[in-house]
Design a protein that fits this description.
Length: 369
C-alpha cells in the first residue's frame, strides 16, 4: 500500500500548505477591502472541504461504475461548455464567459471537461489498447477533443483549450498511438495555438513581454516582473511566513496564479524547492501506480491524471519564474480557486483508488492489512 499512502500523504501536505499560503497571500488585501483577513481563506477552506468529500467519494468509486457514467459525464461537460457561451447563462467577467452561477456557487465547465475527458477517454481506449488501429484510437476521441477545445477557445480561454488538447494527446500516447503521429498532431495544434495567441491583443502582449520585446513595465511586463522581484527578495531561506511585501498589492493574483512567487519569497528557494520536489514525487508515484495496476482503464486514467497535474504545475511555476509566458493556469492544490481545488482533489481520489487496485494492494487489503 505504499503508493496509496504516498498519494494520501502528498495530497494532505500540499492541500494544507495551500491553505496556509492562501491565508498569507490574501490577508493584507482582505483587510484592506473588508477589515478581516479571513475572506479568501474562508472561501478556500469551504472549497477544500468540498474537495475532501469529492476525494473520499472518488476513492471508493468502483471502476465498473465509473466506466458506466463516463459517457454521460463527457456529454454533460460538453453541454455545460456550450451553455456558458449563452448570454444570460454564462457569467461575463473581464471580457470572458467562463463561469455559470448556480445558486451562489460558481461553476467552471472547462475544469469539469478536463476530468470528464480523462475518465471517458480512458474508458474508451482501455478496450482498444495497443491492438487498435489509428482510426479506432482517433475516433471518436479526436473529434470530441477538438469540439471541447473549440468551445473553450470561444470563451475565450486559450490556455485551458491547450490543456484539453494535451489531455487528448496523453490518452492517445498511453493507449499506444505512434509517437510520430502524436508529435505531428501536436505540431499542428501548437501552430494553431501560436496563431490564436498572436491574434488577440492581450495574449500577444503577454507573448511579447515574455520574449522581451516590450519595455512596458506597468503593462504586460508588470505581473511577471513583480513575481521575479518577489522570488529574488526571498533568497535562499525566505523572509519568513507572512512577511511577504509583494502581497501588499504589488503582485496581482498573489493568492491565485502567482502563489508560487509568495512561497518563494516567504519560504525561500528551499521552500520552493520542496514544493517542486513534492510534485516530482507525486509524478513518480502516479506513474508507479500506472505501471503496477492491472486494469487497463485504471492504468490509462492514472497515467493521464498524473501527467495533467504535473503539466499544470510545470506551466504555473514556469511562467512565475519567467521561463514561459503568463497563461493563468493554476498551481494544483496550492492556488486559491473553487472548481480547481475540488476537481484536483477528486482526481487525486481517483489516483488513490487506482493505487488500491494494484495487485499487491488488493492482496494486502484482502488480508486485513
Amino acid at each position: 500500500l505504499a503508493s496509496f499512502h504516498l498519494v494520501l500523504g502528498l495530497t494532505a501536505v500540499l492541500t494544507v500548505m495551500g491553505l496556509i499560503m492562501v491565508l498569507s497571500a490574501s490577508s493584507v488585501e482582505d483587510i484592506s477591502a473588508t477589515g478581516s483577513p479571513w475572506g479568501k481563506f474562508t472561501s478556500q477552506l469551504i472549497y477544500v472541504s468540498l474537495g475532501v468529500v469529492a476525494f473520499v467519494f472518488a476513492l471508493y468509486l468502483r471502476p465498473a461504475l465509473l466506466r458506466r457514467v463516463a459517457l454521460g459525464g463527457v456529454l454533460v461537460s460538453i453541454a455545460l461548455l456550450a451553455a456558458v457561451l449563452v448570454p444570460g447563462v454564462g457569467t461575463m467577467v473581464g471580457g470572458a464567459r467562463r463561469w455559470i452561477d448556480v445558486g451562489g456557487f460558481t461553476l467552471q465547465p472547462s475544469e469539469i471537461a478536463k476530468v470528464a475527458l480523462i475518465v471517458w477517454g480512458a474508458h474508451l481506449l482501455a478496450d482498444r489498447g495497443r491492438k487498435g488501429n489509428i482510426k479506432e484510437l482517433l475516433l471518436p476521441l479526436g473529434p470530441v477533443v477538438v469540439l471541447m477545445a473549440a468551445l473553450v477557445v470561444a470563451e475565450p480561454n486559450q490556455s485551458t483549450a491547450m490543456i484539453i488538447v494535451a489531455v487528448g494527446a496523453m490518452l492517445l500516447y498511453y493507449a499506444g498511438l505512434s509517437s510520430k503521429l502524436i508529435a505531428s498532431l501536436l505540431v499542428v495544434f501548437a501552430l494553431l495555438g501560436i496563431f490564436f495567441a498572436l491574434a488577440e491583443g492581450y495574449r500577444s502582449a503577454r507573448v511579447q513581454a515574455w520574449l522581451g520585446r516590450t519595455d512596458d513595465a506597468l503593462g504586460a511586463n508588470y505581473q511577471s516582473n513583480q513575481a521575479r522581484y518577489s522570488l529574488a527578495d526571498g533568497g535562499l531561506f525566505g523572509v519568513g511566513l507572512g512577511n511577504s511585501t509583494a502581497k501588499w498589492s504589488y503582485l496581482p493574483n498573489a493568492h491565485n496564479d502567482f502563489i508560487f512567487a509568495i512561497i518563494g519569497e516567504e519560504l525561500g528557494y528551499l521552500g520552493a524547492g520542496v514544493v517542486i520536489l513534492m510534485f516530482g514525487i507525486l509524478t513518480w508515484v502516479g506513474m508507479r501506480i500506472a505501471r503496477r495496476v492491472a486494469d487497463p482503464f485504471l492504468r490509462l486514467m492514472a497515467a493521464s491524471i498524473t501527467t495533467l497535474i504535473a503539466l499544470q504545475a510545470i506551466i504555473n511555476m514556469g511562467y512565475v519564474v519567467g521561463l514561459l509566458p503568463v497563461t493563468g493556469i493554476q498551481l494544483p492544490l496550492l492556488s486559491a480557486g473553487g472548481n480547481s481545488v475540488i476537481l484536483v482533489l477528486f482526481m487525486m481520489g481517483l489516483l488513490a483508488n487506482a493505487a488500491r487496485h494494484e495487485p499487491e494492494a488488493i492482496a494486502a487489503l484482502a488480508g486485513g492489512r
